[in-house]
């Protein structure tokens, strides 16, 4: 879990912190993003559709923002290392997914661990998060299992559980572009030493 002080509850295990990223920080990151050439974006990002591009450069300006979030985390919960931003372009959507999908095999392997055996620690995604750096029309987050839709605002930090009740996607973007940063909160779980991560 994380410290929910100043977070507004949107739904079951879905929270928003308005203006978590300051106006000045947003504008600075937007200037960096707009300076990137097409070659500095990696194309598709984790989706079968076009129009979701991830910067292939680290944005060091995210470090102090992420530090503010890390300071709110409870013991043994960690923030992912990602320092990239995502550019979504007009007319695109993001397909439905839950943030636990890539971790289900790992969790099943953890159930095989018997106390006293040799083990290794692996990262287990427990929360997903998105920061937004500009205002835009459309491109809403929606959670069909909760009948919830949310229009993010510039500076918002949205955090949701990685589990199925927080299955989510993004509606069609009406504006030209939507800039965001996606990351995760994780803990470490024990898995048998011989388990191979795929």
Please sum up the structure shown.
The chain is α+β, with helices and mostly antiparallel strands and 198 residues long. The chain contains three helices and twelve strands; from the N terminus they run ββαβαβββαββββββ.
What do you see in this structure?
- This protein is of the alpha+beta class and 198 residues long.
- It has one domain: Jelly Rolls.
- Helices cover 15% and strands 33% of the residues.
- It has 3 helices and 12 strands.
- It has helices at residues 23-35, 62-70, 104-111, and strands at 8-11, 14-17, 52-54, 78-79, 86-89, 94-97, 119-132, 141-143, 148-150, 157-161, 168-170, 177-192.
- Strands 1, 2, 3, 4, 5, 7, 10 and 12 form an 8-stranded antiparallel β-sheet that branches.
- The longest helix has 13 residues, at 23-35.
- The chain is globular and about 55 Å long.
- The two termini are 26 Å apart.
- The model has no long low-confidence stretch (mean pLDDT 92).
Layout of SSEs?
Elements: E1 8-11, E2 14-17, H1 23-35, E3 52-54, H2 62-70, E4 78-79, E5 86-89, E6 94-97, H3 104-111, E7 119-132, E8 141-143, E9 148-150, E10 157-161, E11 168-170, E12 177-192
Antiparallel strand pairs: 1-2, 2-10, 3-5, 4-12, 5-12, 6-11, 7-10, 7-12, 8-9, 8-11
CATH topology descriptor: Jelly Rolls
| Name of the CATH class | Mainly Beta
Describe the biggest sheet?
Answer: 8 strands, antiparallel
Name the CATH architecture: Sandwich
């Amino acid at each position: 879990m994380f410290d929910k002080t100043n977070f507004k509850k949107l739904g079951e295990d879905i929270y928003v912190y308005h203006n978590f990223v300051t106006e000045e920080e947003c504008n600075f990151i937007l200037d960096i993003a707009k300076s990137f050439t097409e070659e500095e974006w990696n194309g598709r990002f984790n989706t079968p559709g076009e129009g979701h591009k991830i910067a292939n450069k680290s944005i060091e300006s995210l470090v102090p923002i992420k530090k503010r979030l890390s300071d709110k985390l409870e013991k043994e919960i960690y923030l992912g290392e990602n320092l990239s931003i995502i550019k979504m372009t007009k007319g695109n959507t993001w397909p439905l997914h839950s943030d636990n999908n890539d971790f289900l095999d790992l969790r099943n392997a953890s159930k095989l661990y018997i106390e006293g055996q040799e083990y290794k620690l692996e990262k287990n995604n427990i929360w997903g998060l998105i920061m937004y750096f500009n205002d835009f029309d459309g491109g809403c987050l929606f959670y069909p299992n909760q009948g919830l839709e949310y229009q993010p605002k510039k500076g918002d930090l949205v955090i949701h559980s990685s589990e199925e009740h927080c299955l989510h996607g993004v509606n069609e973007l009406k504006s030209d572009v939507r800039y965001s940063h996606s990351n995760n909160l994780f803990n470490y779980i024990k898995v048998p030493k011989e388990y191979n991560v795929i």
